[in-house]
Structures are given as C-alpha cells and as structure tokens.
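Note to self: keep these together.
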Amino acid sequence: MMSRFATALLAGAALTYPAMAQAQTQPQSTNGTDAATTPPAAPAADDQQQPAATPDQGGDIVVTAQRREQSVLAVPIAISAIGGNTLTTKGITNSANLAAAVPNLQVSSPYGSTQPNFSLRGISVANEYNSNQASPIGVYVDDVYLASRTAHGMGLFDLERVEVLRGPQGTLFGRNTTGGAINFITKGPTLSGNEGYVEGGYGNFNTYTAQAAIETTMVEDQLGLRIAGNYAKGDGQIQNVFPGGRDGNSQDTLQGRATLRIRPGAGPLDIKLKVYGGRDRGAQAAIHGLLPYRTGLGFFQTNENRMGLNRTEAYGASATIAYEFSPKLTFTSITSRDGGKQNLQQAADGSPLDVLDINWRSSFQQFSEEARFNYSADKLKLVAGGFYGWDQVTTDNTFNIGQALGPNVNGGFFQHYRQVRRSYAVFAQGDYDLTSRLVLTLGARYTWDRSQYRDGYAYLFAGNIGGTQTPLATTVPCPGVPGTCAYNPAARFALDGRNNALTGRVSLSYTFDGGTLVYASYNRGYRSVAFNGGGYTSSAGINYIAPERVNAYEVGLKGRYFDNALTLTAAAFYYDYANQQVQDTRPGPVSFLVNAPKAEVYGAEGEARLRVSPAIVLTAAAGYLHSTYKQLTLQNTVLNGNDLPFAPRFTAQGGVDLTVFKNGTNGLTVSPSVAYFSRQYFSPFNAINAVGTGQRNSELQQGGYAKVNLTAALTTGRFTIKAFANNLFNARVYAYGLDLRGAGFPYNFLVPATPRTYGGSIRVAF
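Structure:
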C-alpha cells in the first residue's frame, strides 16, 4: 500500500540523486539588529516560507527551536542548524549521517541505517537495541514527534533545514528528551509562483538515485501544493563471499510526500495538510562475527549464508493549523497520525553456519496532538499549550539458535508482546526583557506518562530456520530457567507502569552592542520508562524501572565578528545524569533493563564559519566530552569510572567551500570536508570483562578515525552537475558493537560502517 502511495507521488518525475533545498536565512536589517528578532506580522507557518538569503549574503538560518521564528544567533540554546545545501555538500543523505556535521553527535545502529541510535553529548540508548524503547534524543518532522525509532532512519530530501538541539529539552520539546532534539523541517508551499526540480544520479555499487519536487500555486497567497519524492537503489556495499549469497548493506528506498497549504483570502488562517509514505528493502548490515570465518577476508567482506533484508515502512498524515488573532497572539494546532512496521531478517553470526539468526518484527501506530498559543508583546514573549501522545508497538520476534537444544538439535525462542504508551503534558515558557539587553527565560512542563505491557508470551521451540516450530516450554510467563515451565499456549504476561515528571528551563541571556549573545541556563530533562523488550527467556526480566533524569547547566556565546565575516558559537556544559536505562544480562540467561544510578557529563563545543573572500568560505566545529559512570554495576561487576557508550572524547569537523569561478548564478564550487572522532566504546563495560563470563569487551570499541568527503557542483543556467566522494580514503571503521560472548556465543557482534562511495548527478530546475 505504502509503495503504491509513494510511487504515485513520484509519478511523472524523473529519477534523481538526493539534493537538498537552500537553507532558509534571514538578512540583517540596515540598523544592525537582526531582522529575525522582529516580531512577524504573519503567522509562524507563513514566515517559514519567506524567500531566503544565503549565508554568503550575511544572513542567518532562521530556526523554530523555541516554537517561534528566530535567528539561530538569537536563541540561547546550543543548536546546530543545517541548511539543505549544506547537507548535500557534506554528503548527508540519511539521518544516520548527521554526525558528520554536528559536534558531540554520534549515530549508530546494529541494523545499518535502520533504527539509528542517536547519541548527543554522551546520552544515548547505550547497549539497548529493542524497538519498543524510545530514543532519549527526540526526533521530530515539522514539529511532529516520532515515537518509533524505526521511523528515524529516514532518507533526507527536499528539506528546508535540520535543527539539532543539544542538551535536554524538557519544556517545549518535552517527550523523552534527556539528550536533545532533532527537528527535520520539510519544504512546503510558499503560495507564490511555480517551481521545482528533477535530479538523477549514479554511483559506485551500481547505485541509482533520484529526487524530484514540484510546487504549484493555484491561487496566489491562498492555495498551493508541493509534491516531492526520493528514490535510491544500489547493490550491497559489503561483499559476501558465500557462493550465491546476497551482499550486505544494499539500498532500495522509495519515499514520497505531498503538502497542501490553504490560506483563505490571504487572511489570518493558515492550514498545512501533509501526507507521506516510504519503504525500504535494503539488505541487512553485514556482520563481523565468528573469527574462523574472517580468515582471508578484507574489512568490507563477509562470509554469510543467510544475509537478510531490512524491510521497513513508515507513513502518516498531519494537519498544522495556525490562526493569528492579532499581531500579538497566534494559535497553532498540530495533529498527526503515523504508522509503520519493520521486518528485519538478521543473520547475526557473520558465517556460513546457522549459529544465530534473528527475525525482528514489529508494527507501530501513533497519534499526537499539540495545541499552543504564542503571545508577543514589547517585553514578554510567551508560548503555552498542551500535548497528548499515544503510541503502540506490537512485536513478534524469532531467535533461531543453532544447536540450542543439543548437538545438531536446533531451536530458539519466539516472543510476542504489545506495548501501549500515553503521554499528557502542559507547558509554558516565557522570555521577559529585564532590560533592553538582558532577557530572563522561565519555562516548565508537567508530564503524565501511562504505559501498558499486554499479551506477553514467549516459548522455547525446536526447529530449523524457516521450518516448523515445535513449542517445548513456556518462557514468558515463567520466572525460572528456560525449559522449566511446561508449554501453555494460553499463558499471558501483563504489567502496568506510570510516572509523572516536572521539567523546565531557566536562562539569562545578554546581548552586547556588537550583537554578541551570552547566556547561562539550567535545564531539567526527563525520559519516561519503557518495559524491557528483551525479556523473552524468562518473565523475571520484564520490568518497569525509574525514568532517566538530567540536570543540565550550560553557558554559551554566539555572535558575528570582523564585519560579519566570522560567525562563532560556543558552549560549555555540565550534566548530573541519573538512571540511564541499560541492559544487564544475568544467569539464566535473563536480560534485565536496569538503571545506571549516576553519571557525570561535562564538556564544551564550538562552531565557526569564516568568509575569507567571496570565493572562500571555511567551516569548522569541535567538541570535547567527558562522560563517565559514577555508579554502575552490571553482571556483578563494578564499572564506576567507565566511559558512557558512543561518547568519544573529541570530535571535530572542518570544510571549505571554494568557488572556482562565478558569473551571476553560474559557477563552480568545490567542497572538501573532514570529520574526526576519537576512540569510543560500544559497551558500558568498556574493556572490562565480567568475572565468570567469556567476554572480550576490548573488541567492542572503535579507535580514533577521520573520514573525508568531497563534492563539486557546476551550475549553468537551470542545470547543476554534481560529483561526490564520501569516505574518500576508505576508512575502515566499526559503527556498532554488542557483547555476545558473555551470552555464551563464541564471538562478538560488530557492524562495519560504509566504505567509500562516489558518483555524480544532474539536476534541472524549473
């Protein structure tokens, strides 16, 4: 169904290589103040569509991080705002690639680009990999919260910008945001004129890419429609030497989106109706597993007899309705209904043997409604409203384990459950001008979370992969060792959970004569609890634990210098982090979801952009991070002082946009960039092994590395010809690792990142 829907949106458009829309910017006013700080005369939904200036013209990217239009340099929050063209320049075509552009951000996954795990300033899902867990980094599309992590692995196309807010966002972005928020802003109808583009490309691994968008204005200033689509299909990027075996990490993606905007009589009512759909059928992420079968293989090779497919779908619709009662008061309602599913066939041993093969199957549905008022007066700017969210995950996982029951006797576990969560919240945040330069921000949010675990059952079975399963024993509900409870097909397990939370923000910001903004803030973040989705060998492990909480302290500055040639932002922070949710495997084996009682995070980061000349623009970003557990015990092993997973001490990004020649809108720009990451661990154990286990946790880390990307774009008239190379020097890097030795398997689970990719595209604008 979704494939047909997305195909319909693409109908009539040629295949194109992903290219992003120009970042929206706001030029400075002639009196030296930022035009973005002037209260808009039209609803916020309208302001987002105004023609954009480029950063080379001295403008700022306009963001909505505080639920109103502001220059990124006027927001007292650590935020990276990435325009559409910048995404293309840095080779970022998927949400999993964002770490190349944002300091102190990591993106990892055991499934390749599917179900990415975002880590901001060291806060992540750690060693948790189940689909029912909410991300501690809230992910939004056009301010709509996406509850399912399956929907986070999206291809990026036809975007205005991406806003990455670092630090807990417990006031205006209030659901599950101990680490931060990522908001993808799509392009919508401007209600003025007609335009569009078609772009097609080809790259190595026989990769065809496609993107197109068309916008038409049926009634000037009143009615417009924008339709966009994205397509990518390519062979596997990790060679499988098993005879007839499928190569790993292939691409097969199709996405579509349509946005209708209605502004009757060009008046105070502004309505946006959006529908989208997409599907992915790429091969699974290749695995480095059993070491004997790695002999003679290169880093980007594997020997796997059952390379599976990652089948995912996501679809939904939303309505954003804004009404301007007066120049001072605007009401906004955002209603959404989303759904999707995943069917991940994962050979998890990286060998021609059937040691461990998993079929991860889940479907998800969600509904959300946010209603808020924006008030703007001379001294006070206020946002207040309420939120309701409902989401459901239904899971049917199969774990096939070779010789699970004895020599040459295969079997495994089947797991089913349904999780339902409801979240209610009220919130308010106000900015009050204590003086013409000093602003006090106060905000609070109160949240009520209610969760249900229903219809839970699991059983031990005998049978081969893809063959008949013969149930032998019920393991859920069963509090003991697997195989000790007789099989009961009617047995079910249920559990309820609830928690409430008060979160908020306090900030003081001061703007100097030259425009430099300095600020100091306190934020309290909260991540609600999910049930342990990994409890299938025993119901003893299915629990509901305390929520995560973060008290975050931050100071920062933002400004322009040297006649606006240099744009600089910097921040330093300290987090008191409690109750991170991590997995703990205990004898049985039983996997428990537990809290890491205390952790400490502190560091600093900065971003800079220097216009050396009209032909040379330099960009740079750097981050330092110290994130350690102050109190943590897993598998009866004290891990105090260990680093948090996916938290390298140092990250750095740098690039240059070199305009070789320019004649009006025509020209050639070459853009090399580099991203560096120091060593990071994939496990809370770091290199420590739990006593009495077969762990080799020193394998679960990635040393420091750098990746270089290069793009070039030649524009002549309506045509743009692009070339790109990502990971130019073919860095051999692990993106994810998981301990399996401690669970009794003779290897660890390691996922190699993407090798070098290169290609080109041609874009036609109309």
